[in-house]
TrEMBL record:
This is Cytochrome C. One of its GO terms (molecular function) is metal ion binding. SUPFAM superfamilies: Multiheme cytochromes. The chain crosses the membrane at residues 241-260. The keyword Heme applies.
Length: 267
């Protein structure tokens, strides 16, 4: 009896330890706990905005950007625990560039990056700090870009890249539907992925000549991918035709068999 009781006790203790361990692993960081309760720009606003962001989706949290220790209430913001606080305006590119290395490189080489100390935009000017969303060419718009200069050149850039963007989306959709009907699209997907990544690096240069020159190259790459897709879609069309013909033949065969049986039965 005593042994059973002890066994049960041990069992419950194990369950308790396990659930509390998973609970603390799932809990939010102390940064979010404490700042979520502070008002305004110091707490509620950054916390709520961050929750809507692409970073929240990918679990890039307060401490991944600001440093510090998300497990220790008291020492959370101590520099001993790696807290780096808030970057100055011109330090933002390096702050974000710890993770977005390629983008920072392109930005630094651009006119924007070179004049960041004299009124050029930093990453936050275009992407915001806490409400960062998946980037699209919609970020290039009259309201955002006209804060500092006319919209002429931005409009030209947008026009230049939007046809290629649209083609990219169309090809992505085609590949997805080919995949759904059972084609092996691995190579096509890899091809398009690499074209897209390289193409999307272009914008940060804000160099209209460079963008014009390189977009032509990307269009040529995409035309190749499109040709392969067209071929596959044609094969698919033929398959459907042959399949349709087979079904027709089967139905016809069935009808004939039925007719023959009827004539035998009638005799
Ligand atoms: C116990 C509450 C509490 C915790 C935990 C906490 N903070 Fe703070 N934080 C504050 C308060 C209060 C301020 C404003 C006063 C100050 O700067 O010390 C602040 C300020 C900040 C600032 C602005 C600093 C500046 O220079 O303007 C940042 C960024 C920040 N916290 C990030 C974090 C991060 C990241 C974590 C987790 C690793 C964290 N905080 C944990 C209460 C907290
Ligand atoms: C993607 C990186 C990133 C993440 C994640 C992030 N921050 Fe920030 N945060 C910044 C930047 C950059 C600034 C500097 C402000 C600016 O330039 O607009 C900043 C500024 C702040 C400030 C100073 C007040 C202000 O708005 O300028 C506080 C407080 C703060 N962040 C708290 C937080 C808290 C709390 C979290 C988590 C819920 C968080 N941050 C997550 C990048 C980030
Ligand atoms: C002048 C506005 C502007 C500035 C400044 C800017 N960006 Fe962007 N960013 C954009 C636009 C517009 C796009 C979308 C380009 C596209 O889809 O072709 C983009 C795309 C991105 C992407 C997605 C790229 C991809 O491969 O999918 C990341 C990440 C990014 N920016 C981070 C940053 C960082 C980090 C900085 C600072 C070093 C920065 N941006 C500065 C406007 C800007
Ligand atoms: C600790 C690493 C880290 C830091 C610091 C960081 N990011 Fe990110 N960021 C990520 C990850 C991870 C993703 C999601 C995966 C991806 O798209 O690359 C992401 C995604 C993005 C995207 C969407 C990319 C797309 O595909 O459209 C943008 C825009 C972006 N970040 C901008 C910023 C800006 C601006 C800052 C500075 C305020 C910043 N990031 C700081 C890690 C980081
Ligand atoms: C915070 C201010 C600021 C914002 C916001 C801004 N720019 Fe700029 N931009 C500058 C400055 C400063 C220059 C360099 C001096 C000039 O040409 O006015 C510049 C120059 C340019 C140039 C000219 C490059 C050349 O070769 O002449 C282009 C193109 C450009 N920006 C595109 C954009 C686009 C697109 C956006 C919106 C997504 C944008 N900018 C948003 C400040 C800004």
């Amino acid at each position: 009896m005593k042994k059973i009781l002890l066994n049960n006790l041990f069992f419950f203790l194990m369950i308790f330890l396990l659930t509390s361990a998973t609970a603390s692993a799932a809990a939010t960081s102390v940064c979010i706990e404490c700042h979520g309760g502070l008002s305004g720009q110091l707490g509620e606003i950054p916390t709520a905005e961050w929750h809507t962001s692409v970073h929240a989706v990918h679990r890039v949290s307060c401490h991944d950007c600001h440093g510090g220790d998300p497990t220790d209430y008291v020492e959370a913001m101590s520099s001993d625990r790696g807290f780096i606080g808030v970057p100055d305006y011109a330090e933002v590119p390096a702050f974000c560039g710890r993770c977005h290395v390629g983008v920072e490189e392109d930005y630094r080489a651009s006119l924007h990056g070179q004049v960041v100390e004299f009124g050029g935009p930093n990453c936050v000017s275009c992407h915001e700090n806490h409400a960062v969303q998946v980037a699209t060419i919609d970020l290039i718009n009259d309201i955002s870009c006209s804060r500092c200069h006319t919209y002429d050149k931005p409009a030209l850039i947008k026009q230049e890249i939007s046809d290629t963007e649209a083609m990219l989306s169309r090809l992505e959709a085609s590949i997805a539907s080919l995949y759904r009907v059972g084609f092996d699209t691995g190579r096509l997907q890899d091809e398009l992925f690499s074209t897209r990544n390289n193409f999307r690096r272009l914008f940060h240069s804000v160099d209209i000549e460079k963008i014009r020159a390189e977009t032509a190259g990307f269009d040529a790459d995409l035309a190749e991918t499109k040709a392969t897709i067209d071929e596959l879609e044609e094969t698919l069309g033929q398959r459907k035709l042959v399949g349709g013909a087979l079904v027709l033949l089967l139905i016809l065969g069935g009808c004939i068999a039925l007719l023959i049986r009827r004539t035998f039965e009638n005799r």
